[in-house]
Amino acid sequence: MRSSRRLSWIVLPILLACAAAFSEAPAVLESGGAALALDPATGGIVSLRDMATGREFVQGAHPDGLWTLTLDDGGALRASGAETVAVEPSADGGLRLAWSGFSVKDGALDARVEAEVVPADGAFRLTFAVTGLPFNRIRQVVFPRVAGLRPGEGDALAVPEWMGSLARNPGRLLNPGDPPQPARRAWEYPGLLSMQFVAFCNDTGPGVMLSSADTGAHRKLFAVCGDGAGGVGLEMAHLPGKGGGSRFAPEYAADIAVFRGGWFGAAERYRAGAAAGFWADQSRKRLGRVPAWAADTALWVWNRGKSPGVLPPATALAEKTGLPVSVFWHWWHGCAYDTGFPEYFPPREGGDAFRAALAAAEAKGVHAILYMNQRLWGLETESWKTERAERFAVKNPDGAIGREVYNIFNNAACTPMCMGTAFWRNTYAGLAEKAVAEFGAGGIYMDQACASCACYDVSHGHPRGGGSWWVEGFAALEKDIRARCARRTEATLAGEGCGEAWLPRLDLMLSLQVSRERYAAPGEWEPVPLFQAVYNDAALLFGNYASLTEPPYDELWPPEFAPAEPLVLLDRKFSAQFRLEQARALLWGQQPCLANFKPELLEQRAEETDFFVRAARLRRAALAYLRDGVMLRPPETGVPASEIPVSRLSIYAGRRDRVREYSMPAPGVLASAWRAADGGVAVVLANITEAPQTVALNLDTPDYPLPEGAAPRLFRADGVPAPVAAEGPGRVTVTLTAGDLAVCEWPAPEEKTP
User: Fold this and answer.
1) DSSP category for residue 438
2) 3-state SS, residue 136
3) Domain annotation covers residue 208
4) What is the pTM of this model?
5) Alpha carbons 309 and 300: distance in angstroms, whole number
6) What CATH number should be reported for the domain holding residue 138?
7) CA 261, CA 638: separation in Å to the nearest integer?
8) pLDDT of residue 20
9) Per-residue confidence at 134, pLDDT binned at 50, 70, 90?
10) Residue 360 lies in a domain
């Protein structure tokens, strides 16, 4: 029970007519056209209002208040449990809050939690500190918490889960069941969360964004939560890193902002912030350090197995198309996939044959990156025992290792290794050196690269749990790999996922969400290019699961689950799904990719492969936009969506039934808009239907800064422009044939030679 409460000060501009100095009226701040009100009794957020529209976002405070602190013994301190709450004005025009007087199961706790809220950059900036509590007793602090958001028409959740995900029914998603039960979904940063924000958004109205501008890549979590009554909340959680004694204060702040423009508006706001500018300026692409062949790749072939089924198909595609083709190569290694890592060598076809195959392909201009998981060690491998690798594995708070099972055919477990240990970095760097310097690969693909773990083994030499040490360890690993491989070539490093903290370290990022339906049944979440909207001109993304065959099967897996015939052609009814995947990749700036390619597909599935090749040619003709440009708001096409059949068929889609069929709505015509460095603006269009479609474009809005006096023109895969009749400033009508791909461009004026 609280013995006392004290309110030292309240802010009352406009919204409150009057209040006595020690009243229970909310304390109110204004910033960026929004008003934030705090409960003087708990310090919790009781109101967040868009002043232009009058929309009140918060309808009911969270019972725990603004923050929750979890102790190492499982206990917790809550803002709502403080004996004393103080709210005072701060010197910079904000509010200073303090909570003290806490009780835990073993008695009173002499701890104090302090926070400050200040208007800054059109948002409310929040910082906190915990004092009087031993540093090593703190497991996690949730701060801040924005609860009670009531979804209405058009509201959605935008989360930068790697490339980006959008949930259009957040109330139902986070309050499932009958009666509804609260649900919570959290993502770690740096890791599955590629950027530091989550957003409650609306395409036509205001939304709420919770973000951070941390440029140190400190480990934190962002979460979206239900309340069991249809409401939605946004949370940020912090793990102690460096420090000690009896004080914990993160080196970064949290921002709460009201914004407009849906998921793209959230990306725009984040792109304009300090964090995005920092990571973009440090990126290998922006600094011109990406190997030329990787940046110039027009087509990727993602094949698996021994070299005859991998490299000759890629060289055949290069010869057929005249385009630069590169290879993304799995299952070259001597161990079973998702079972025997990191026992990659010797290659399964023998070292000499493997080396010769790589050299022959490179002589024809085809480069290969080799798969090597960046974080897993198989628990059933001999090396796990002989190397005593458990010492260097990631440890949970109880000291145990984690068990991750991906292979559904043998259920073999792996465990993540700690990036903070020199042992694991040296082990992995040595493997990379062998692949590139000894066998001649163009580089390596680091599976699960854009992921991180909280490790609690302090014998590894890093802080317990959180901090920035994981990304710092990856930086050391990357530098070591490049230095080791430099005696032969400039190694290309690719990694799974995408993440701003890896932009200075990776040349390429594999973004599979354009093929989300291949590995996850259609549901509440859909892919959106949040990462590209922020970082396209600083990142090179590639890859998808798009395939015209059933998934392959590793010859080293149990034979009883192997298909009777490998790589059986998929039914043609899934062609629209294939076009959707390739269209997403094209329109979202990625290098095109085809999985499980064999040359006979050029004839067996001529229409689909032609679409794929035309997409690659069109991208090549529009590199100034799609590779090097900045994404603008996706324009409306006016073409309705329709249901298409989709297949779920990743290698782990099922043990017996290799392909599972679903249906989902898909846009008939996809569109994206881009601005080139010279000021030109272009709209990229893809008709994935089997019928002609007419698209009416209207770019006569502030979202599209068209060059003054520019006349629109249209070009397709050949790159030859043809004029388009303008129906007004930024207004054109484009007719697309079935399966058509085109770019409508408003070019920048050509510079006149003096």
Assistant:
1) I
2) helix
3) yes
4) 0.95
5) 15
6) 2.70.98.10
7) 19
8) 35
9) confident
10) no
